[in-house]
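Data card: per-record layout.
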Amino acid sequence: MRGPLIISGILLLGACSVEPGSQQWCANKKAQPKSEWIRSDAAMHARHCLFDSTTVGSKEWCKDSWEKPKGEWTAKDTASYARYCVM
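The structure for this 87-residue chain is written out next.
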């Protein structure tokens, strides 16, 4: 009973922000001039947006996450999976 409530709470809290590395974040960064990027933006873009398997919420990312042992999931992994792969 508590599991769905916790997941719902996490989703509601994170619904207003775009998660770095998500498909929407990658699209926003592509549209933004690179001169406005900070160093962490460039590193995050290279890590998550250049390869579909690491873009948070992509089909490959959801598949890879599902195959990852659930004992290794962090709270952020769980929230991201629920937000992008279940909803």
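Known properties of this structure: The chain has a mean pLDDT of 80. The chain has one domain: 2-86.

See the next section for split statistics.
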